């Protein structure tokens, strides 16, 4: 299995356990997802919404970012009328002098789907109006916030039409009920496709520490023996 497929499959399985998103593969392709963002924050203007989007992943993922597009466009300063987003995390890696974005703000291979979705949820309530993708929405948010809230309510109610039949919408309380049981199988350890975990220290560091501890222990034993001889 190629790196992109393996990484995406692991991310897909992990996100299936989350209450705040509902994901389906498009035509059983791991490179195309239908994603629903479910807003469980009761303090959000979008609380209770079910916002569907499509994510498409490049073959060299995670070295290049996915694309994200709301299927039902929202009236929002950072969402284009066709549903595409203007958000740094989805921009190609590296600094962009034209936009002023630093490399840290943009996509990098350590990012994952979950970080993208969380960024999108944060963007909904924390719009960037200095360079809006939807100028009308940006102007309304600044000059007439109450009218903007009414537009949000409209989009919120419209989103509920996309809730699948029979799907039970989670609540804010459900967001804290997900308990992940550890899954570990010794039989899979040797054949794991996962990259070896690196906690930042080399093996030699630990070996040096062990040697120092042994030396200290040996020295203390010698001191004890001298004390006994003198006694």
UniProtKB/TrEMBL annotation:
The active site is at residue 86. Residues 3-161 form the UBC core domain. The lineage of its organism: Eukaryota, Fungi, Dikarya, Ascomycota, Pezizomycotina. This is Ubiquitin-conjugating enzyme E2 2. Keywords: ATP-binding, Nucleotide-binding, Transferase, Ubl conjugation pathway. It comes from Verruconis gallopava. It holds the Pfam family UQ_con. Residues 188-231 have a biased composition (Acidic residues). One of its GO terms (molecular function) is ATP binding. PROSITE patterns: UBC_1, UBC_2. Transmembrane segments: none annotated. Residues 182-231 are annotated as: Disordered. InterPro entries: Ub_conjugating_enzyme, UBC, UBQ-conjugating_AS, UBQ-conjugating_enzyme/RWD. The keyword ATP-binding applies. Belongs to the ubiquitin-conjugating enzyme family. CDD domains: UBCc_ScCDC34-like.
């Amino acid at each position: 299995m190629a790196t992109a497929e393996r990484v995406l499959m692991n991310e897909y399985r992990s996100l299936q356990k989350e209450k705040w998103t509902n994901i389906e593969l498009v035509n059983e392709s791991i490179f195309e997802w239908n994603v629903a963002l479910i807003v469980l924050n009761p303090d959000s203007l979008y609380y209770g919404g079910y916002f569907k989007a499509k994510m498409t992943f490049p073959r060299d993922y995670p070295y290049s970012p996915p694309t994200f597009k709301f299927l039902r466009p929202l009236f929002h300063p950072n969402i284009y009328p066709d549903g595409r987003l203007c958000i740094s995390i989805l921009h190609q890696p590296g600094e962009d002098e034209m936009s002023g974005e630093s490399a840290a703000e943009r996509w990098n291979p350590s990012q994952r789907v979950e970080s993208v979705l969380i960024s999108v949820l944060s963007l909904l309530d924390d719009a960037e109006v200095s360079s809006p993708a939807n100028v009308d929405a940006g102007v309304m948010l600044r000059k007439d916030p109450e009218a903007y809230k009414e537009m949000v309510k409209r989009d919120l109610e419209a989103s509920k039409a996309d809730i699948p039949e029979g799907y039970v919408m989670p609540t804010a309380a459900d967001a804290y009920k997900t308990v992940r049981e550890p899954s570990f199988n010794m039989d899979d350890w040797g054949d794991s496709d996962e990259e070896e975990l690196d906690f930042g220290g080399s093996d030699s560091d630990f070996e040096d520490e062990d040697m120092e501890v042994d030396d200290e222990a040996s020295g203390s034993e010698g001191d004890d023996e001298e004390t006994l001889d003198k006694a």
